[in-house]
Design brief:
mainly alpha, Na+/H+ antiporter like fold, 2 strands
Length: about 325
């Protein structure tokens, strides 16, 4: 219960950090490129710094073992989420259907999950941030393989209701997941964690990394706030697909994650930190990267932005409720 209350407090705190983004956009204090610039700062500078600092700790074999469990769970869960998502939204218009499935499979690990876990769990459960980062590596691999597949494998329905299949030639850039700065920072950090070289990072450099990592949570929320300011909620109440998406993203899939962890826990001992990290990341709102993929692959970017916005708002209630079950 104490962790759940702490989670509620920190989720509310993160939502307050969205306000500056909303105000800046509404008051026209920034243009459309501002959010992209902040996103790049978070993804390519601040988050790699957070990743590297997370590994600057004395070697702990249990953290390494738990990381392996998280990796296996994350692979299984993304595969299960994909199977579930592909069996829904079959009657939705093509560009919407692709984005509904994408937003169902991929949660907001980078901008919501990792900052939340670092704020809520790390102090009481050392290593939690490392586990979240391991999950994010799997997330990126699936994002640039399965995610691209979902966005490009489609059929457009014409006015007669006949499927007009469109062939898209694309190379799945899965290599991007392995050259992403966060993945590289994880590899370097893992070396520092495993080898007996603790303290070899100069104090000045470590302090700089710590200051950069502290930017992740506030800047991530500012970016979400900027996107919230542009959203229109017209037609949301009448959108049946939206309700199905909410039921899957915020209820069914987190419960699947919880059930899988509990089931495995009957056979082998699962650290509570691993369990909570998996459930929180599975219960996180739809990934903000959905908007970027929609624009890149000619999907309905306005619709998926609405999905992300509604999902993000609902997560302030659903994440703590799901965690109470843990």
């Amino acid at each position: 219960m104490q962790i759940a209350l702490k989670l509620i407090y920190n989720v509310a705190l993160l939502f307050l950090m969205m306000v500056p983004g909303v105000l800046m956009k509404k008051c026209r204090l920034c243009d459309d490129s501002f959010g992209k610039g902040i996103s790049n700062l978070v993804l390519y500078i601040a988050q790699p710094a957070l990743t590297f600092v997370a590994y600057l700790r004395p070697y702990d074999e249990q953290i390494l073992i738990n990381s392996a469990y998280v990796f296996v769970f994350s692979v299984l869960l993304h595969a299960l989420f994909a199977v579930v998502a592909m069996n829904f939204f079959k009657k939705a218009p093509d560009s919407m259907r692709r984005m509904l499935r994408f937003a169902t499979v991929f949660s907001n690990v980078a901008f919501m999950g990792i900052p939340l876990i670092a704020a809520v769990l790390e102090a009481d459960y050392p290593g939690s941030t490392v586990y979240a980062l391991i999950y994010s590596i799997t997330f990126n691999v699936f994002l640039w393989s399965l995610g691209v597949k979902i966005c490009t494998d489609h059929a457009d329905r014409d006015h007669d209701g006949i499927d007009d299949h469109v062939e898209y030639k694309h190379n799945t850039p899965i290599w991007k997941a392995f050259v992403h700065p966060t993945t590289i920072a994880s590899a370097i950090g893992l070396v520092f964690f495993i080898l007996p070289i603790e303290g070899y990072v100069p104090a000045l450099a470590e302090e700089a990394f710590v200051m950069l990592k502290n930017l992740v949570a506030p800047l991530s929320m500012v970016v979400i706030g900027l996107r919230l300011a542009d959203m229109s909620f017209k037609g949301v109440i009448k959108d049946v697909n939206m309700y199905i998406f909410i039921a899957l993203r915020h209820v069914a899939l987190p419960l699947i994650a919880l059930g899988l962890v509990k089931l495995v826990g009957l056979v082998i001992s699962i650290d509570p930190a691993v369990e909570m990290v998996i459930v929180i990341l599975a219960a996180a709102p739809a990934a903000t990267s959905a908007t970027m993929f929609a624009e890149k692959y000619d999907c309905d970017s306005m619709y998926v932005s609405r999905l992300v916005t509604v999902s993000t708002i609902l997560s302030i209630v659903t994440i703590p409720l799901i965690l109470l079950l843990v």
